[in-house]
Design a protein that fits this description.
It is built from 13 helices and 18 strands. By secondary structure, the protein is of the alpha+beta class. It folds into 2 domains: 186 residues, 2-Layer Sandwich (Beta-Lactamase), CATH 3.30.450; 223 residues, 4-Layer Sandwich (Phosphatase 2c, domain 1), CATH 3.60.40. Keywords: Hydrolase. Pfam families: GAF_2 (PF13185), SpoIIE (PF07228). One of its GO terms (molecular function) is phosphatase activity.
Length: 526
Amino acid sequence: MVVVVAGPTSTPLDASGDSGAESGRWGRGAAPSAGAGTVALDAVGVAPAAETGEQAGRRTSRAPVDGVAPAAAGDAQDGVRVVESSGDEAVASLVHRMDVLSAVTELLLDEPVFNETVAVRRCARLLATELAEWVFIDLVPQRQPDGTGQAAAVRNGDATPRRQVVMGPEEEWAEDAARGLAAADPAPGMLPWTVFETGHSALRPHAEELDLLGSCPDGRPVLSTIGATSVLCVPVTDGDRPIGVITLAGRGEHGPFSLLDLSVCQRIGRYLGMVIRASRMYRRSAAVAESLQASLLPRRLPEIEGLELAARYTSATDGTEVGGDFYDAFPAKEGWGLVLGDVVGKGEDAATVTATARHAVRLVSRWKTDPREVLATVNETLLTEDRFVTAVFAGIVRRGEGVRVTLGIAGHPPAIVVRGDGVILTASRGGVPLGLFEDFDPGTDTLDLAPGDTLLLHSDGVLEACDAARLQFGQARLLETLAAHAGGSVDDMLGAVERSLLDFCDGDLRDDVSMLAMRVLPPSLN
């Protein structure tokens, strides 16, 4: 439903019907006058057939088509040219509207991951450039994960719109006015509030009520402050209900808004609403995934005398699903245990298997010391699951000033040792993933670490990260980065690997990345 309220025209019709109607806005064409106190618009906003060539010709863009001014009425030959010119202008006006609609669609869908703030500002900027001097966008704030809502939502009520963006002319006075208007949320009695409550668009070609958009902090009506004489307002809908309002205000320099302007803005309101809905669903999914992922990882690593521990976890760029990476450090029957693994797939099912694998390793390590026996028992536990798991388990036992590391490998990338003198060694690989076969045979290796040596466990996401040319980060780049930062702390070393990885793939991680490192401290630092 469209509500059209019109005030008196600036120039009443004379006896011959020559109205002197105002020219169109930005090549879009304004509504022609039909008589004092009314504005007549047909269903598509096109001038009625009864209007004269001169009346149609005056609904022009900033510059007349082909630079030709409308001819005077009464000249038959010139009248033909006026009709032809007005026809060209009508086509140009329609094309301009379609261009605006197409441009908005491209802007809103340009981001691979929907961003509500970016979408709203882009939409407002384009509308302020193409359709109006002033643009106001008001939206209902999204609920926070705890269900409390933003502060403004608490202030206004649970489902009332709050001002998000105000854009006006690029002039100093307008920028000052915009800052003041940005804090003026819609209130009952204002046109944006009414449109939001009813879900019906409103068009005021000639706005006579100065308090239509409320008042500024100094008490002056908004319309007076910005000098607007024409207003249209459309709801922003997410497909089910209004979630906000777009308001356009013009100063009348290029004619009042027409029904075609309203039609274009109605579509833009629907498009913007769908993008906002997608953005909020994405953020909710990402928040749930992040929360669930955090529950699958230790809140903090334990402090172990004589050892320095550090870990890094980076989720894939499209982090709307829970990843399958996990790591842990825990006391074992003899000494300590480290584990890092990766469950195939993502989502809630993968999270269930991740939790099972991680806690099973912790539990079994309490009463078994051999990593082969630990992994074999975990394998039995995972045989009933629909997903398999690659993992590496390290049993840590003190040996003098150093430690002995006994590795059990289940189809996982091999552990890496960075010696204190910068020499890098790669442990054995082998074994089959957990949860595939009853006849399980893990790979094994034993390493002796001296003070200053570092053990690194990592997921395959480190090696398989790709750049734009689909070239993988690979083992060689990983070893080079580790060697270049071997003199720093363990946390600095992992941070360097993380930065190098993100730079290599330009921030576009296709898989989760996890790393767990342990360094043997010199006796003086124990």
